[in-house]
Amino acid sequence: MMSVPEQVLMSELNKVRRNRLNREMQEQSDSGLIQVPDAVAPPQAPLETDLTSAENQEREIMRLLMLYASEIIHIEQTDENNDKVKIPVMVADYIVHDIRRDELQFENPVFCFNF
Known about the structure:
It contains three helices and two strands; from the N terminus they run ααββα. With 115 residues, the chain is an alpha+beta fold. It has two domains: 1-34; 55-101, no CATH class. Strands 1-2 form a two-stranded antiparallel ribbon. A hairpin with a 5-residue loop joins β1 and β2 (84-90). The longest helix has 26 residues, at 6-31. The two termini are 27 Å apart.
């Protein structure tokens, strides 16, 4: 997995968008058709991240739980006849089961709750 900070990726994305926008505007001005472009988000200052901390992952797990906890996903398993069966599972149950199975502990007390 790449460890590129999100702010760097956003800055690069904005550069690509600006270049594309400038190129399109140049083509439109050459053809006599000029349109007002959508606003491009200004680059934000890079955030300091501690690569040894699990806080970002913990925050992301909590965000996913808050947004999608009650959503249903289908887990594919094989039954006793070796047929593939899709079992409906709530996202919250799936995530909490994986955390318990792997015996993971959250470091940040804000994100800790009893699994």
